Amino acid sequence: MQSELSSQKYINHFIITMKRHLIVIFAVAVMASCASPSVKPSVAVEEWGETDSKPVFLYTLTNSNGIAVKITNYGGIVVNFSRPTGTERWKTSCSDWAV
Prior knowledge:
Layout: H1 2-34, E1 42-51, E2 54-62, E3 68-72, E4 78-84, E5 90-92
Antiparallel strand pairs: 1-2, 2-3, 3-4, 4-5
């Protein structure tokens, strides 16, 4: 009985996490469609760590204006949000946020 509850809890967590990812991907797609097509929007994935013996990935979503957001697959946490400035340098907008 206990193992059935823990597996159901894991499945529910997985479904919620996937819904969050789909929402983020949809939001990036909308942002990309509203911007001028100067840079091709992209999604990059890299290994970021491990929790409970499961890999955690960091997704970098970039729109055509060069605005980038880094989000983990561990709870959909926004790790970084950056935008290019007029001098071609990147300004990080939320790297000092407390979690």
